[in-house]
């Protein structure tokens, strides 16, 4: 029997019916002595072979404890094995009842009652089996996916405008997408179709990918016209961790900018659904706030080392011989004010009425606690807007089971381009895998810097990141041989993740031509027939 979606004839029933609500007998399988079946979102299969007996999970025992697990050294390996079995058993129990957990809002009164609060505790997340937080998310996203359509609503983008504000791709797409029904965006590949005004490009996927990458680049520019992201103070001061990461701008509180944060959340949701990661370097603290993990002094220190040190100095100032008598002479603060994540905002009250509360030797510990709490929650308004945007595309309550690092991996993918991983998903057309040209190509790519590999990925796919799991790629990378003049420039079709190479006289010449192509060709302009259609004669609401 078969029922449900049949857009790709995955049920083995009539090709003219896209879905079957009541279970319908699959006549083609009648009398075939079927012993096994499997079904997915776009396939189904049946076997006459008898299922193999399931093997019980067997946990091996290592000869010694690896050095990276220093906290386990000295414990008997048998005891550790028993503990691991207990944790796996607990994960199985939790997975069997995840729909009953209080995931919607940890602020609800009944969620605060034991044992419910412990089941939803962020402290549990790192020790849970991955399937506890991956399978519910995959199942829910799959069951709400729009089927039978290649792309969602169309958005119009004019990148060649003379007006800087109007040429900003992020703001153009945000204005259009924020007014759409989120249900129309729940597609597996392209949430919307991009029409580029005045450019020769037809969006079969590559234009969508390219504009997504361009929006990420815009947001991370220092002169971005939509100020959503700011560098961490550690980046500004060139000290400590996360010097290459960004935070949300706590001063962006206007209704327009909050709608832009909501659109950023939509982009996060699109990245999770389409498995096409965004090239954004966002601080781990932001991901913690998005999944409602607790943040602490350590998060402050990892993003603003100098401020954390100054607060620690105030708290422990008595150890330096400072007393109540000379405290105000040594501390340049006289009230409950503190600095913001954004230095240009100056001092801000860290509690309501903070400017009127004097800072003294006796209340310095309370001051430090309030200053840390203010910083850790200064971006709550922006985080809430992002979560609101995500909620239209992915089940945000399930983020209560997800670790911050896993969400970052889902949204932003692997930070580095692995040549070895790319080789595993490559197909060759009119080329032999072991040909000289192919060997030269992989050698050249291996010798590229990280920045050059990112440019290469942008050139061939429109994307700057690869998903952490290669199985999530919707297309395989193709290398195609074309007959053109010797040492010609490589070309690519981003819509099909395809690179076209001609013959080259040497690997050095191939490297030179490939570097030129990925560095200088940043536009999609070979679909020349589209220039007739995508003219500036159309009226576009800017």
From TrEMBL:
<dbReference type="GO" id="GO:0009966">
    <property type="term" value="P:regulation of signal transduction"/>
</dbReference>
<dbReference type="InterPro" id="IPR000569">
    <property type="entry name" value="HECT_dom"/>
</dbReference>
<dbReference type="InterPro" id="IPR000408">
    <property type="entry name" value="Reg_chr_condens"/>
</dbReference>
<dbReference type="InterPro" id="IPR035983">
    <property type="entry name" value="Hect_E3_ubiquitin_ligase"/>
</dbReference>
<feature type="active site" description="Glycyl thioester intermediate">
    <location>
        <position position="495"/>
    </location>
</feature>
<dbReference type="GO" id="GO:0061630">
    <property type="term" value="F:ubiquitin protein ligase activity"/>
</dbReference>
<dbReference type="InterPro" id="IPR009091">
    <property type="entry name" value="RCC1/BLIP-II"/>
</dbReference>
<keyword id="KW-0833">Ubl conjugation pathway</keyword>
<feature type="repeat" description="RCC1">
    <location>
        <begin position="1"/>
        <end position="50"/>
    </location>
</feature>
<protein>
    <recommendedName>
        <fullName>HECT-type E3 ubiquitin transferase</fullName>
        <ecNumber>2.3.2.26</ecNumber>
    </recommendedName>
</protein>
<keyword id="KW-0677">Repeat</keyword>
<keyword id="KW-0963">Cytoplasm</keyword>
<feature type="domain" description="HECT">
    <location>
        <begin position="181"/>
        <end position="527"/>
    </location>
</feature>
<dbReference type="GO" id="GO:0005737">
    <property type="term" value="C:cytoplasm"/>
</dbReference>
<keyword id="KW-0597">Phosphoprotein</keyword>
<keyword id="KW-0808">Transferase</keyword>
<dbReference type="InterPro" id="IPR042469">
    <property type="entry name" value="HECTD3"/>
</dbReference>
<comment type="pathway">
    <text>Protein modification; protein ubiquitination.</text>
</comment>
<dbReference type="Pfam" id="PF00415">
    <property type="entry name" value="RCC1"/>
</dbReference>
<dbReference type="Pfam" id="PF00632">
    <property type="entry name" value="HECT"/>
</dbReference>
